[in-house]
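Risk mitigation, structural track. In case the binding assays with pyridoxal-5'-phosphate fail to produce interpretable data, a predicted complex structure has been prepared as a fallback.
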Amino acid sequence: MKNFLPQDYKKNQKLKINHSYLIEQFADYSNIFKEVEKVVKKGDYTLGSEVDKCEKSFAKRTGAKFAISVGNGTDALLLALKALNIGSGDEVITVPYTFIATVGSIVTAGAKPVFVDTKFDYNMDETLVEKAITKKTKAIMPVHWAGRPCEMDKIYSIAKKYKLHVVQDSAHIIGAKFKNKHLVNFGDACTYSMHPLKNLNVWGDGGFIVTNKKQLAKKLFLLRNHGLKNRNTCQIFGYNSRLDTIQAAVANYKMKNKLDNITKKRINNARALDRLLLKNKNVETIRRYKHLKEVFHLYHINVKKRDALQKFLIKNNIDAKVHYPTPVHLQPAAKFLKYKKGDFPVSEKLAKTSLSLPVHEFIGKREINHMANKINKFYKDR
Ligand SMILES: Cc1ncc(COP(=O)(O)O)c(C=O)c1O
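Fallback model:
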């Protein structure tokens, strides 16, 4: 099913290029209401057939043997760590350039996050991982930032060498592949978010853990529902983190009708921007590789005079954003980890030079050209 263009983009109207289009994305909500009506008529409000269907579809899309739906992407990370018995006294290696939930999940599991720097493509620098391993290390948590896979064969082979778990924060990366393989093949589990701003989004919160490991899946199915084996038997103490059945109906509709088109459009828009910005010496686009299928949850450029450019673009109705201006090791919450400014120079540089441009499914050639022209003009005039 095609996505339609919102009113703003009708020809001859002044361009306004926003980052998110939630109203337009769900303008066909009446179709989803019909699915929700079925849930209501069945009184099927917790788990049930809609959730089962969602898990089957998600497993198929991610090439996984098992998909366990949960309440959100943060719980997905936390439950994956819990199911792997990672907690107090353990260390988990991850990156400081990420959304706080990655690191938050490690801390709330009771473990200690240990950072390694990123590369200029925003992903974990795999060459630094081995040096960060100690006797306490239990897992590596790479983040496939912006929808670009990390170098998973290298990270996974380090994990195997040191007998470490791999939990991949895949919140941004539904539909991506590494060397033509699904990411689930490179570790214990991948975790996903269906937050409203993600490529596969629902009407609130939702998340997934996928794995090929049967025992791990079994434990995760228990953990997300109070550890209940059946109505009257609690196998292990757990959580209430079920995917809401109504959100499952939304996700089923989106997977069936929209997600492929969303992914295709994002890839095409990103490629077009790459081409148009290539010659601008003030703009560093990210080098693309054939072995990485990226899905562009975010489209980043690294630029000179970032804050001035962002102001200029916003003034010109282009919703350029910064994801994010402060790496996690410099957040007040991370003080107890005792990192300091200068510890992760690449992440810190990215925080100063990174700009995200909209590349979503409601943008076409005209908007892409307009954004590139404005960026090129900004530097020409200075
Ligand atoms: C990299 C990353 N990990 C985890 C999460 C957490 O997902 P959720 O908001 O569904 O809890 C997010 C959400 O934005 C994220 O960007």
